[in-house]
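Course assignment 3, question 2. Fill in each field.
Student: A.L.
Task: Predict the tertiary structure for the chain below.
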Amino acid sequence: MKVQFLKRNIFKRIFGISATSKPINPDCWAYSDGKLIIDLKRTPELEKPWGAIRLEGGNLTERLLVVVAEDKKYYVFKNRCTHMGHRRLDPVPGLNTVQCCSVNKSTYDFEGKKVYGPAPEPIITYPVSIEGDKLISIINN
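Answer field:
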């Protein structure tokens, strides 16, 4: 598998600043009883391949990263690198990978397996289904 590094300045890597933003419309998603629902009509960030949003706060028990791939398939990840623990992930455009925002650039495929870097474990992925205009994912804690 090809590994490509996201271009970011060293300041962002040292401090672990994610390139992925929170949704423009904060009301586009809801989480309750282990079920994440995203209204895709209200989430323009997920309309094009390699679009992504990070979800955090509210009543979520963990931070999440949602990515749409080139084939329009959606992925939901626990947004936490297994190397540093507190570092976030960002999608790598053009590849089916996500990469840690730190200096070590641990990289994972869309199944959560490590493909590069010092991370000791895979990342957690969650199942996704689409029902109409809603993305639904069950978040197991």
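Instructor remarks: The first strand starts at residue 29 and ends at 32. The radius of gyration is 14 Å.
Grade: pending
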